[in-house]
Amino acid sequence: MNPARAYVAEIKYEFLKTIRLPGYVIPTILFPLMFYILFGLALGPKAGGGVEAATYLIATYGAFGVIGASLVGFGVSVATERGQGWLLVKRASPMPPMAYFIAKIAMSMLFSLVLVILLLTLGTSFGGVELPVSTMLALTGTLVAGALPFCAMGLAIGYLAGPNSASAIVNLIYLPMSFASGLWIPMEILPKFFKVLGPMLPAYHFAQLGLASLGYGQGSALIHLLVLGGYALIFLAIALFAYRRDEGRTFG
Predict the structure, then answer these.
(1) CB 222 within 8 A of CB 141
(2) How many other C-beta atoms lie within 10 A of the C-beta of residue 107?
(3) By CB distance 3.0 to 4.6 Å, which of 61, 122, 139, 193 could disulfide with 213?
(4) Contact criterion met (CB below 8 Å) for 51 and 135
(5) Long-range contacts of 39-47 (CB under 8 A, 24+ apart)
(6) Exposure of 55 by Cβ count < 10 A (0-12 exposed, 13-18 middle, 19+ buried)?
(7) What is the mean pLDDT of the chain?
(8) Could you say which DSSP state residue 188 is in?
(9) What is the pLDDT of residue 1?
């Protein structure tokens, strides 16, 4: 089998499988768009910050959606497919071992790209958002690339959690982390406790990178990158440990 064709085929069928799952599409695409319409477009002008709020929230709700696409795409999907025995079938096939993971990364990044484009379209069409093309490209690239550390986080969850508990665990991590990191409500107006907790979370640093591309970021971009990179390595190490433990149980 041609390895390149195997990768392309795996990515293609991963995308086709995922786009047919309302349990994935609704929380990762529709929820961020709905929240943006409600808070960025409908309530923004009433708060006296119309254009600025609509611009600011593209970055934070974009980060929210990207994290969801990565955690659900890896955490829930891998746990479910482990429980179904599908990973054993994959390992027994002539498919390159990394094709499975590359396909899920590509799927998460593709859904992230679609989400960011839709948010920018809503903002520029109905929210009075005016951004140079270079700024929109920088924001899009930052948010799509930011899927990677959360793919690692999702992979760790996928190998640690059972198929019936993965979705609940993802939501217990994803939703509180998003709120505490200022993705729903700007960090400046959250209680003091969250201002202390937020900078300890990867979602906060991801959102700050997205906001920095719009001129709203706080702190050093290098620090945010280093923190995200550190989290990615930690999650990959946990995922590798859980993967080896899973294989030991299966073949031991």
Answers:
(1) no
(2) 27
(3) 139
(4) no
(5) 39/184, 40/122, 40/123, 40/127, 41/122, 41/123, 41/126, 41/127, 44/127
(6) buried
(7) 89
(8) G
(9) 59
List Cβ neighbours of 37 (8 Å cut-off, separation of 6 or more): 122
- Secondary structure element (H or E) that encloses residue 47, with its range: none
Question: Torsion angle of alpha carbons 64, 71, 180, 127, nearest 10°?
Answer: 10
User: CA 100 → CA 65, 93, 198, distances in Å?
Assistant: 22, 11, 33
In residues, how long is the chain?
A: 252
- For 70-96, letters b (16+ CB in 10 Å) and e give bbbbbbbbbbbbbeeeebeeeeeeebe
Q: Tokens 């290098």, residue?
A: 222
For residues 99-114, give the mean pLDDT: 93
Segment 199-221 shows an average pLDDT of 94
Domain ranges in the chain are 3-251
Arithmetic mean of pLDDT, 168-195: 92
User: Which amino acid would we find at residue 244?
Assistant: R
Residue closest to 117 by CA, chosen among 199, 32, 219: 32
Helix axes 202-212, 166-180, angle to 10 degrees: 50
What's the rounded Cα separation, in Å, for the pair 170 and 151? 12
The segment with the largest mean pLDDT, out of 37-41, 43-47, 205-209, 218-222, is: 205-209
